[in-house]
Write a structure and sequence with these properties.
Number of domains: 1
CATH class: Mainly Alpha
Number of helices: 8
Largest sheet: 2 strands, antiparallel
Strand content: 5-15%
Strand order of the largest sheet: 1-4
CATH architecture: Up-down Bundle
Number of strands: 4
Structural class: mainly alpha
Radius of gyration: 18 Å
Helix content: 55-70%
């Protein structure tokens, strides 16, 4: 059975859709426009960094180390913002995260190619703040800027549904697969817009603006298993 409970708009699917589309676009942007560096797939950056360092290519390795460190700092910044501003009444602390992202990514659009290392660092920092702050969709834990965890959770829910036929598990699996699809669409949009060059990232700002505004809407009811 299910009962209704209050759900923050930051967890609602429309907001999550904007953030996830933006997350996919950001990864495509840094890879296609800013020198084939991942904005949020830090495992890939670690692999490439290690290959360069073990080949004594210190400068090449640093190109992947910088966004890795920036990502870690972004998680720290998001946690500090949450601890300091979570009791604000005028805006939700997650809206401050999105606002910070919008400012950073808008600035990235002005950085020339010679500052790709800084652009990648700022995008990775932004991605980390987002993935740390937004961790649920319809009450299910998820990641808005990467897919591996969502894929594992989606297949786990699908496997459980095939065993016990609980409709709630199928709903859960659909949510995860939907988020993965949105991320892929965002990445595809980023690839299509890549010929715009450094200004491509402003499309991500537009998506984040929509998500920011959606969070001003009243909280919505959602299902809760009992």
């Amino acid at each position: 059975m299910a009962e209704l409970k209050s759900k923050q708009m930051s967890d609602a699917l429309p907001t999550v859709a904007c953030l996830t589309l933006s997350g996919g676009l950001q990864d495509a942007y840094t890879y296609c426009v800013r020198g084939k560096v991942f904005a949020n797939a830090q495992t890939g950056n670690i692999v490439l960094m290690s290959q360069h360092f073990f080949s004594a290519d210190w400068l090449g390795g640093a190109r992947y180390l910088i966004p890795l460190v920036a990502f870690a700092c972004g998680v720290l910044a998001a946690e500090q913002i949450r601890a300091r501003y979570q009791k604000l009444q005028a805006v939700h602390w997650r809206q401050l995260i999105v606002l910070g992202e919008m400012i950073l990514l808008f600035a990235v659009g002005f950085l020339p190619a010679r500052l790709d290392f800084l652009a990648n660092a700022l995008v990775s920092f932004s991605c980390a703040m987002q993935v740390q702050a937004f961790r649920k969709v319809d009450g299910y834990a998820y990641a808005s800027t990467m897919c591996i965890g969502n894929m594992r959770s989606g297949m786990e829910a699908l496997s459980a549904y095939l065993r016990i036929r609980n409709p709630e598990l199928l709903h859960k699996a659909k949510r995860y697969f939907g988020v993965i699809l949105l991320f892929a669409i965002g990445a595809g949009i980023g690839g299509v817009l890549a010929p715009m060059g450094r200004h491509t990232i402003w499309a991500s700002c537009l998506l984040l603006t929509v998500g920011f505004l959606l969070m001003f809407r009243p909280e919505m009811p959602s299902r809760k298993k009992v």
